[in-house]
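User: I'm curious whether this sequence folds into something compact or stays loose and floppy. Could you predict its structure so I can see for myself?
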Amino acid sequence: MLKKFLLGLGALFFILMGSLILIMGYVFNNPDSVFTAFNSVTNKIMQGQKYEENEEFFLQGMNNLTLSSRRVDLSVKIYSGNTLKVQLHGKIPRFEQGPFITQTAEKDAVHVEFHEPIASSWIQMNVNGKETTQESDAKLQADIYLPESFKNHVSIETRDGNVSLQIPKELLYELDLQSISGKIQNSVTSNPTGEVLPQNVGHIKIQTAEGAITVTPQE
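Assistant: Here's the prediction. I'll summarize afterward.
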């Protein structure tokens, strides 16, 4: 009985090895077919799915607001409401769930952070000297609506993410724009309609490492 079992196990081993050799031979002799199948499968795996996340934060009693991300692009607009509203939208990998917005508060400061999907990466394959790479199309953008009544300090920070800020001409903001290697463009000319008082001047500081910074008038 044991002899039959060992013979059967040995036969199964040789069958598997033979199948593996045949498969490897096909892969090396027909790389184009393999790559076509690989691309078809990975395109479906890496294709992002639509995603949207909305949050709202009260800023009453807060003196400092920080908005930060690593790669997520931030689009900031001023509006007439009383709360900070954020909408995160774009594409995420199919096996990611979120949420990607986190908020921490300490005394008179609040920090809102936008995270990118961990799986926004790539798959690489090399067969017989031929290499192909598939990258995920996962990408998120945050639309941020800052209440015009908040005149305290706002700090916006990214590494690779771009920052777009729109400011109404009738409102006055003190801007501090800094980037290590990103392009900075500021086309805003403030035109306040009344007397300029210190308590009516907002303070916005934007810092990026590589992301571009753009400041434009808000229609």
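Summary: The longest strand covers residues 49-58. The chain has a mean pLDDT of 81.
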